[in-house]
Amino acid sequence: MRSGIALYIILLVTWAFSGCAPKKGNVVEGVLLGNEGQGVQVELRKWVPGRTGQAGEFVALDATYSDMEGNFTLEPKENLVMDFYQLMVSKSTPMVLIMDSTMHIHVEATVPPGGFIVDAKVKGSSASQEASVYYSKAMPMQENMGMLRAAMQNAKDNQKRQEISDRSSQLKNDINDWSKSFIQDHKGSPSSLGPLEHLDVRSNQALFEGVLKSTKTDLENGSYHQALTAALAAETAKANPMNAKRAIQNGNGANAPRPKKNAKYGIGDEAPEIVMNDPDGKTRKLSDLRGKMVLIDFWASWCGPCRRENPTLVRAYDQYKSKGFEVFSVSLDKDVDRWTRAIEQDGLVWPNHVSDLAGWSNAAGRSYGVHSVPHAVLIDQEGTIVATHLRGSMLLAKLNELLP
Questions:
Q1: Which tens digits make up the pLDDT trace of 32-91?
Q2: Scanning 141, 171, 311, 388, which has the fewest C-beta atoms within 10 Å of its C-beta?
Q3: 161 with 167: CB under 8 angstroms?
């Protein structure tokens, strides 16, 4: 879903056996079936939003290891509000859990070698069982979307690319239909909030308003409901500029974030095209990377903070390039020799380095409203901005969220 919502969506599930004896206190336990569920790490996580324009991160509430029969028990000590949480297996395979501290939940699930856990049995939280039904159908479709995007990027001719694009569009329609159908069948349930992550807020504002209103009593104190409320407020503000001027940031996610001074565009906006030459004089276009997750990195060889940030960019590129991640570096240099020397010294091995050698008058920098560097803009496969002002571990956390 656009508007960066994908940033907040957590996939956690829990199951229960019908013969479970209830226990007092907040307990998440169960059995993970299959070889992938034996002797592996199991974490219960919550999402902690970042500051305005920055990525948030998952924080573990409790962690344990399953035994060699797949049994595990988690007992978070923190007082939990009703919210969407994440049960993460082996740091790579998530499930959705909707819970608070009053619940005892039991989970039975077969752990796949990758992707998301589907067809889970959940007892102790009816909303979690409903969410399991939703994500068991939605997530395989999302994974297929990712495969089609990769195939489109590697297509050898326009005809093949168009065929894949048509299949992708149809699959997107199927996801939209399933999301809306699920919401219709689960009106007022906390689980109806989940499908919003797969819908475009811009074209479904009335639906967002209805779901957020119907789940407010149960979920308004949770990060997920607050994130979606903020996304809706931001979209409403764009459509009503006068209201946007009157909106006041009050810290609870009820209003759209104030824009950063060092950025003309924010989450949910389409990233403007950049067309510039690389050090060898070859023209490179940002739009040529459509179909990949791209970090637009504004930097310069003379910028100390930029150079100190470069090792993180190298690490991110090495770790995520196989999953469709690219870096598009825009230099605010004036001296081509200093620029190319810095690229070599810092090991910036990606091919997309551009500059018009105009310094602070760089055309792309002016277009994006950049007044200081380093400045990072992360865009998704469709060219929509999903995060800005990413630095250090925040960049890695965001990529881990979007490209698991």
A1: 999 999 999 999 999 887 655 445 678 899 999 999 999 999 999 889 999 999 999 998
A2: 311
A3: no
First to last CA, the chain: 16
DSSP states along 54-112: S--EEEEEEEEE--TT-EEEE---SPPPSEEEEEEETTTEEEEEEE-TT-EEEEEEEPP
> Looking at the predicted structure, is the pLDDT value of residue 191 above 80?
yes
- Rounded CA-CA distance 134/194 in Å is 8
Residues constituting the chain = 404
Question: Got the DSSP string for 168-236?
Answer: HHHHHHHHHHHHHHHHHHTTTSGGGGGGGGGS-GGG-HHHHHHHHHHTHHHHTTSHHHHHHHHHHHHHH
- Residue 13 confidence (pLDDT) above 50: no
How does residue 114 score in pLDDT terms, banded at 50, 70 and 90?
A: confident
Closest CA to 136 of 173, 108, 96, 176: 96
Tokens of 94: 């998530």
Tens-place pLDDT, residues 221-270: 998 899 889 888 887 876 665 444 433 343 334 334 434 445 678 888 88
CA-CA distance, 121 to 18, in Å (whole number)? 10
For the chain, which domains are there? 5-129 (2.60.40), 140-246 (no CATH), 275-402 (3.40.30.10)
Q: What's the pTM?
A: 0.57
Residues 139 and 118: beta-carbon distance below 8 Å: yes
253: left (phi over 0), alpha (psi -120 to 50) or beta: left
What's 41's DSSP letter? Answer: E
User: In sequence order, what are the beta bridge partners of 3?
Assistant: none
State yes or no: pLDDT of 110 exceeds 80: yes
Distance CA 252, CA 282 (A): 47
Look up residue 291 and give its two tokens. 């179909």
**C-alpha dihedral sign at 233, 234, 240, 242:** positive
Q: In this structure, are residues 325 and 403 in contact, taking their beta carbons and an 8 Å threshold?
A: yes
DSSP state of 21: P
- CA-CA distance, 52 to 204, in Å (whole number)? 24
**Inter-residue contact 373 to 301 (CB < 8 Å):** no
